[in-house]
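Researcher: Go.
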Amino acid sequence: MYDNRKNSMKLKIKFVSLVVVLLLNTIGCVNNDLSDNMENSENMNIITDDNNIEIPVGDKNAEATKGSADNQKTEESNKHGKGSFQTEKQSTEEQVSISMLSEEQRNLIIAFMDDYYETLATLEVINPSTYFVDPEGRNSVLNQVVWSFMVKLRGKQSIDLLMDQYEYILTLESVETEEEDVEITLTEDSIQTYKAYPNVTSEQYNTIHHFVLNNTDNGWRIESHRQRGTLYWNLLGDYHERRDEEEDIIIDEQEAIESIYTQMNVLLEKADSNFMLRQETIEKVELPEYDYEYNRTAAIEYANSWIDERNETWLDYSSYGGNCQNFASQILLAGGIPMDLKGSELWKWYSTNLNDNTSSTGRTSSWTGVDNFLEYASENRGYGLVSDTNAPYYSGEIGDLIIMGYDENWRHTVVISEVIKDERGNTIDYLINSNTSDLRNFPVGAYIYTRQKLVKIYGWNE
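Model: Structure:
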């Protein structure tokens, strides 16, 4: 499948340090600006878009079922895709080759990842417990619950999120051996097609995984697995917070497992209420006045150009809390929205130094921070951006932004790349582009962040 999509799937090999994996375990940007102490850098580029994608309304098969250990191995003939390891990666610092892992270790990881993707493809949970050293322990349960949560969440959507196909490539980033344990960090690039829109390829880049494998009497098993993303930390919930506060505290394993299940139910309850909020409509939308219209075509051309790579004019904030809002701000600038140095609400980036004054120097938190940008977009009057942060969720167009989190603790910003409509012309979902993590034409309905706010961009005033 990769051979047929070389133009759309540019697989790059990048070194990601283990420190970043452990300390910045977030998908997307944090809710405030963590990059306030950065120094240095400034501008822009292109690609293309279509307009709306129309799909027929259909029934969806989305009932989550828990697979048994007996059915754990997915039959090869029934799989919707496959995965493989990149042969090797090189950097100026070191060379990492898959020869550093045994065939048994590689096969274990691939089997685990295949079952993960088959779970998402079919929306039926395949139980991964027998891959783990302790099938009933906290690390096994955490991954089972993550898979179950994603299946249940996608099953709640109005759009069919069953997959037709997937393929993924794993790139080994680091291997550390300590006695019977092997610690492995790798990155994953993938492509997916969904039944709802089979002609669209969704791309996902640089997802970071951290495995600890243990050599048991029954062969290699997984001691623990974490995927970069707030879902793992949120499911650990209070247990994770207490471990942070008191590193030496010992918590009962059963207590930790119960906490994981409790947190999943909390997030699913939030999801139900968040989905209801998306359906809210406004009887009459007052269109604002503006001097110049937002250039949506130029904005989405820029958005399509900088996935899985960065425009070196700007600092990449991926290692400082996330690059998502920085990327979104660049997109608005590409669409003709000027930096705003006037009035009390400011939005600018001239260098990495943080300052909230009207000089053509430094940057404002509103350029790189999700909450800060939302405040700017909500409060700005007069010169600069004209937008609506309370627009009906399903009134979005290409180039508009969606800000998201589990609740109003906003954590991430994405840009709409396509609008998904049913055969009656009603918007039922969006495809989006984003940085950190890097996604192109990804269904926003598949996001784990269920509280989503549309920021409708109109243009700007002189």
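Model: Residues 292-461 form one domain.
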